[in-house]
Amino acid sequence: MTFKVVDLLALPDVREGDAVVLAGQESLERAIRWVGISERLDIAPFLKGGELLVMTGMELARHPRMQRRYVRDLAGVNVAGLMIRLGEDFPEVPRGMIAEAKAQGLPLIVLRRRIGAIHLTEQVHSLIIGEQFQLIEQAEMIARDFTRLVTGGGDLPLILERLAATVENPVVLEDPAHQIVEYAAHAASVDDVLQTWELHSREGHGRSSDGEVQLAPSSPECLWADIVVRGDLVGRLHVLAVLHPFNEIDHLTVDRAATAVALTLLGRSEARHLADHACSALIADVLGGRLQEPAEFYRRCSTCRVELDVKTLAVLVVIPHGLASRAARQGLEEHERQAVRASILSDVREAVRDSGCAGLCGLDGDRVVAIVGVDPRRDLEQMLDEIGTKAVSRVARRYDDLRPRAGVSGQTSPHSLLKALRNAYEAADFHAASGEGPLVTHFDSLGPSHLLLRLAEGPELARYVESELGPLLEHDVRGKSPLLPTLRAFIECGGRKSEAARRLSIERRSVYHRLARLEQTMGRDLSDEETCHRLWLALSALDLLRRRRPDDALEYLHGPRKGGSQ
After folding, report:
1. Is the pLDDT of residue 431 over 70?
2. If you write DSSP's letter for every residue of 511-552 in order, what string do you get?
3. 276 in a domain, yes or no?
């Protein structure tokens, strides 16, 4: 307990001094930090607050004009109170001083009988030091208690329950977005608080730069502390004064509990980081062709706590297209970019887990790779669609300036994992650069298009498009009536003019007229089957080249494909 002015009045020496409170009765619960004896009238600048001053009033009697100012100065530095022993030099307190003390809410106490002032200060200091020592002992006991919880493997719910039981009030742990992560209600019903939690946590809660426990003047009052791990704010711990008012030991308890929570989260982060590194290293070995034997692959998976040996295997790759641009636009440091990768990796891992499958998930540059194991009794393609859609949707919700796309291989085996990884990359690349197309692309559905993807990494594909479609593209740029849509409809309808007319919503004779103009412009015979096949390939290549944006060349065309990097 904190030693207060009211406790001072209960001491035998003070009672024997016939103490009378002349002003500040409403402030008798003030804590006394120290007791000082001084007659100086300019003492205020040397005080820190919380002191109880004891004097005889000798100097006050000599300087009546300083009396009210003296009281104001003491109140201005938040002293606990002023005690004056009346005597021949100062037989009574002037009314002006009493009025000023009342106005300032400063406890003003007079002793009408002589007491041993030095003995009083020694007695009070002994009590204060004793209480401080007790606080230190309690704090150490609490710290040891929370340390045992952390080192014994205690999780967050257990730590919060212990904190709630110690402070006898409900406790809430929130994330940086003010969403509740865990809470312990103790003996209270916190339904009303939880329903309006975001409003509560945003009112009166700033950012504690020094990490100290803060008191929020909310309703109810709230003791809170930031949870910082590796310099990043990862959450905030709140204790709500629903059942009991706060005392000094509650501040110490919240401080020790916040440290325990941070250590627990740091331990999780370290464990997750090591696990992610192990998974990424295994995937890098697969990409580098350094893992040939199935037994070795399954053994390495087991060390990552992923069991794939009785599963149907396939590879899923998620490309967070636009991450390089985001990093450049926001000036992200490498560790900040790595944090984004880790979040995307977490989204993919959760999508695999939520679908009831096993997955070895890791990073290859900015890409997330998952070697997925599906129960042989389930439909492989359907499960991969489900996982890919969940993963891409989560990433898109988390980062609205990215264009995530997923690519999946067909069924594979440990012997063919490298090929499956490359196939999944190509499938993910096919629609990665545009906002169009499916969220998940299967390599088996690409057909000849996967050959175009490989050609797109050099100038050959663009040259082919120019040789086949150059005159038509130039015509459409210069003319007012583009012919490319007509050619596309004609080719995609297999050369059937009536069907092309319906697709274009024009009359059949208009299609004949446009086709004649196309043949004249391109110098080609559209009735020739080989010509139509070449034009279909050129149109597909044109679509692929147009989908790719300037930053794609940096992010994907020259991205890692072998040996994986994290």
Report:
1. no
2. HHHHHHHHHHHHT--TT-HHHHHHHHHHHHHHHHHHH--HHH
3. no
452 vs 532: CA distance, rounded Å: 17
The domain spanning residue 473 has which CATH number?
1.10.10.2840
The per-residue pLDDT for 391 is 93
Beta bridge partners of 373: 313, 358
Tell whether the model's pLDDT for residue 140 goes beyond 60: yes
pLDDT of residue 96: 93
Average pLDDT over every residue of 233-261? 84
Q: What is the pLDDT of residue 306?
A: 86
Residues 314 and 441 in one domain: yes
Q: State the CB neighbour count (10 A cutoff) for residue 322.
A: 21
Residue 560 lies in a domain: no
Same domain, 48 and 192: no
Domain range holding 83?
A: 5-127
Q: In terms of DSSP bridges, do strands 108-111 and 403-408 run parallel, antiparallel, or are they unpaired?
A: unpaired
Q: Considering the chain, what is the average pLDDT of its residues?
A: 82
Residue 378: CB atoms within 10 A of its CB come to 14
Domain boundary (92, 109, 127) is at: 127
561 domain residue, yes or no: no
| Average pLDDT rounded to a whole number, residues 40-47 | 90
Q: Running DSSP on this structure, what letter comes out for residue 378?
A: S
